[in-house]
Amino acid sequence: MASDSGAAPGAGNAAGNTTLERCLDVLRDAKNDSEQFAALLLVTKAVRAGEVDCKTRRRIFDAVGFTFPNRLLASREPPAGCPEHVFRALGLTLLTCFCTDPELARHSQILNKIPTFNDILASPCNPDDTYTSSMIDDVYQCLGAVLATARGPRELVSRGTVSALCQVYLKNSYGHDHALQLLQGLLATAEARCWQRATPDLMAVLGKLSEMFHRAEDMTKFQMCAILPHFMPPPPLLTQHPQGSKCLHNLYRGLASILSSRLSQLQRDPALKLAACLSQACGSEWIPAGNAGSKFLALLVNLACVEVRLCLEEPDPATVDGKEEVMTACYILIEMGILECMREEKPLLKEKQKVQLVGTMGEAFGAVIYYLRQVGWEKLGEPFIFASVRILGAWMAEETSSLKQEICDLLPFLVHYAKTLFRKEDKAMCFPQQTAVPGVPGSPKDSALPTDALRFLLPALCHLTAEDRPREILISEGVPALLREYFLRQWQVLTSEPQPLAPPDSVEVSLQTTCGVFLNLVVTTPDLIRQDGCFSSLMDTLMKSLPFLLPRQGHLVLAANVATLGLMMARILASIPVLQETPSAQAFFEAAIHFLSQAHAAREDPTSKSLAMAVVPDYEAAWADIRELWFLGMQAFASCMTLFPWLPYMVLQSSWPQDLLALLGQVAPDSVDFELIAVFQGILLELARASQQGKEVIMSQRGKEWANLYGMAALEQCLCEL
């Protein structure tokens, strides 16, 4: 047998556990509160000393359950000679012990204590008072355990913990560092709920943090770069809240101080991430106008471009591994640079700065293209590839004159990538994602990898399909068929009931831009429209879409795109079965007549007091976006008049020519511009050529007189012919 001096390892713990076992027996068999209290003191000492394993913790719970800690928390009368909060402290110690078991941490008895935890945090605490400080320490452990459960974040937010933690931090109360950590955890897991329930408190915390960030002159400044992104509110709160402008100013001054200094990479990367976070939250609004602001913006974008080149131009693609997050932040800053270089109204940048930045960004995008060609095919499913494709799409949408050959060489990969992601969603509806890129602090959190790469490439495809060589590549890679499927998918999203959580505006914009790509193909490759079966299928979809859109408010721009594309395609596909006076063809042309005929009306000119031709109020707000489409649609409709024998009769039945001639008779001729006269003449002329009845109706409405008055020579000549 070993002597006391040579006790076996662990003998002390064994003795302690034996004592704990006796205490548990006393707790279980105690006949009064005094006996329970004495045993409980020993149990809590063991708990605080960390002498409790999982098995023993469960034995403690089986011995006392939640009933005894609940009694202790509710008690207000401690035993004689004991501190005021002794019962509550003992109760919290037990709950803290239980919360180390995830199963107990999500128990309703623990969740129901959240208001009690909040109250304890809000109560005054003297750090020298062992009981009150240990109580608060226990509360933080309990809250941390609850936060780690699936249901915990929602319960904490709904029961007021966010505001309680904010107040602890704002008052610099005991444990305020723990409060800040818990707030970061809550915002990371339940951002939207947190801001909905505690906007004033969270904005106050952001105000304090931004002030500290601005004033700090030591390493704290760099540490706060990692903390601040968690407290960025969802847009547009930061630019609209009364405290927002001061926060933004402090953040700008803090970042300007950092980025204008010589920095190591470890110091620079968090600053770039914070700047990217601000850019996602409010664009460039956080950067003040003026010389200092423009220099800072140029510096920021230049730094981002340099980082991208340094990382992506490396011969070894593995260099990127571990740097995806800062690279994605740089992409966000470069995208802000693109937008600012294209901005004409109240630009932050001077023209010289814009020219310099466009060149610098071009070099950075050369590096992005190089990287995608190196590793893109091997890493299709990685978020950073998506981020790279997305930012390249933003660049190509605005700048097509540089890197032409490089972009053409990359197009097969881009199409394959977009197609691969699109196919992944074939069995489930693909809802467009937020424009934020995963992996950047401060961007919409917890989003899965977006799958709608096409959405970000569509504006670039609009430009590329207008150029011969890129268009040939896109056609050879099957883009028309892919876009037809994409259009149908987005249409299903738009018309689904109930509406999906995806932003409806982004769905509508995607549909509009897809129409723009198809219009380019219709104008430049009519033979493709005739030969590729996907366009006949698209025509059928368009014919069903327009009658659905027009009666519904808020869809005029999309309706203009659908109407014009459908009419342009109908001229080429006039012989296909779906256009042969079918119900869907008739409904489409009736809707097209309504869209085209309702755009203008007579309105009193305030200066001359005479009636003038004017765009109707319903079209006025969207006219800048649909004007060209409307004129193109008028020309296409006129061409359709002679291709579909049944169409002139429909036009006459609608009273469009009669109303048009009456309108021309009402308004002052000098209020009708030449372009408008030309398309009006086109409609009337083709109607007269296609239908004798149409010619007679025009004549009966003083058509010859109005043709002469408005200089419609071709119409006047046609009406004079037998």
What does this structure look like?
It comes from Alligator mississippiensis (American alligator). Strands 1-2 form a two-stranded antiparallel ribbon. The protein has helices spanning 11-29, 33-48, 54-64, 67-74, 86-99, 102-105, 108-111, 114-122, 130-147, 152-158, 161-170, 176-215, 220-227, 237-240, 244-259, 265-282, 291-312, 324-342, 351-375, 383-398, 404-424, 453-464, 468-476, 479-495, 504-524, 526-531, 533-549, 556-572, 583-597, 617-620, 623-640, 647-653, 656-666, 674-690, 692-700, 703-709, 713-720; strands at 600-604, 611-615. It has 722 residues and is an all-alpha fold. Helix content is 70%, strand content 1%.
Outline type? elongated
Number of helices: 37
Strand order of the largest sheet: 1-2
Mean residue pLDDT: 87
Rg measurement, Å: 35 Å
Instruction: Tell me the structural class.
Output: mainly alpha
Main sheet attributes: strand count, strand direction, barrel closure: 2 strands, antiparallel
Number of DSSP strands?
A: 2
Bin the strand percentage: under 5%
> What low-confidence regions span 5 or more consecutive residues with pLDDT below 50?
1-16, 427-448
End-to-end Cα distance: 131 Å
Helical percentage? 55-70%
Layout: helices, strands, pairs:
Blueprint: H1 11-29, H2 33-48, H3 54-64, H4 67-74, H5 86-99, H6 102-105, H7 108-111, H8 114-122, H9 130-147, H10 152-158, H11 161-170, H12 176-215, H13 220-227, H14 237-240, H15 244-259, H16 265-282, H17 291-312, H18 324-342, H19 351-375, H20 383-398, H21 404-424, H22 453-464, H23 468-476, H24 479-495, H25 504-524, H26 526-531, H27 533-549, H28 556-572, H29 583-597, E1 600-604, E2 611-615, H30 617-620, H31 623-640, H32 647-653, H33 656-666, H34 674-690, H35 692-700, H36 703-709, H37 713-720
Antiparallel strand pairs: 1-2
